Amino acid sequence: MADGTPQERASKPARLRAVLVLATAVGGAGAHVRSLAEGLVARGVAVTVAGPASVEEHFGFTATGARFAEVAISTAPRPADVAAVRALREACAGAHVVHAHGLRAGLVAGAAVGRQRPGRRPLVLTLHNAVLATGPKGALTRMMEGRAVRAADVVLGASADLVDRARKVGAADARLGPVGAPQLPPPGRERAAVRAELTSADRPIVLTVGRLAPQKAYPVLLDAARDWKRLDPVPLLVVAGDGPLLDELRTRIDADHLPVRLLGHRSDVADLFTAADIAVLASEWEARSLFAQEALRVGVPLVATSVGGTPELVGDAAVLVPYGDAPALAAAVADLLDDHRKRELLTELGRQQAETWPDERATVEQVLSIYEELGPL
Question: I want to staple 212 with a disulfide (CB 3.0 to 4.6 A). Which of 146, 199, 245, 371 is the partner?
Fold first, then answer.
């Protein structure tokens, strides 16, 4: 039996209904949307996640209590976007607010919501990545970026440079919206067992985790690994992740006899961290790298490129080097391997820095407050 009289029930505010929109994704944006869905559902929000079937398979949004609506939003514009707009419009029926994650999702959501449509739902857009493409592709992408940003009522940037960029291209309301990394589960194996799997020698392990894509600058990291061949013992670079550069990287590793192991996708990142002596991030750009956050939280010293939101994320708790400078990257890792006291200091500083970051709860609370600000509840 329903609680209260019909008049009492009618006077209660409607349950907040939010649609989270995602294009094809396998990395941080998808993990953030899953975390957000779980947190919002726990707070009584009726959540629908709309995106390609592959993201539900990868992240399991329905396991959080959210509903999933299949909307085929690819990573690049296609004629099928017309059907995606139609499907998303149907998924958004009855929603109080629509929240798109990433440029492609923002474009489709902006078209589905429509500035002039009757009964339009407020649109929030979270930007997770910068536009790095150049030439004609870069010009087209920047044009789409401006269109997506201007269609949103509120734009959240995962780092300060994304917020500045959104304002520059016409955002009506741009705010910082840090994306917190979900807590890693406890490791399932001891350090010695993981190291025995990775290498038979008593040698340092340098770990990186991420999609094998151009933004992560793996060729620069392989150049650094080539320099490490002069060290004794020679460090082993362990790369966890898959992606379009897999064959290219494998060919280079074999041809140059580099001390590198490509592990492919791994679900035991917490275990890999227990085996690592140093974490390294060679990216061309990052907002708030989930890998960098995980490294500092678990106390693995980090060497990273000074790009995007990384300096504001890590503060003094990591060694930063210029992007694209393989000798500087190689030297920073070699220096850390040779300085046990500095590694211990970075371990402590990293854990302290991690305490200053907003956690998943704070991220959900910020997003929920924006929904309530925009939504006619």
Answer: 245
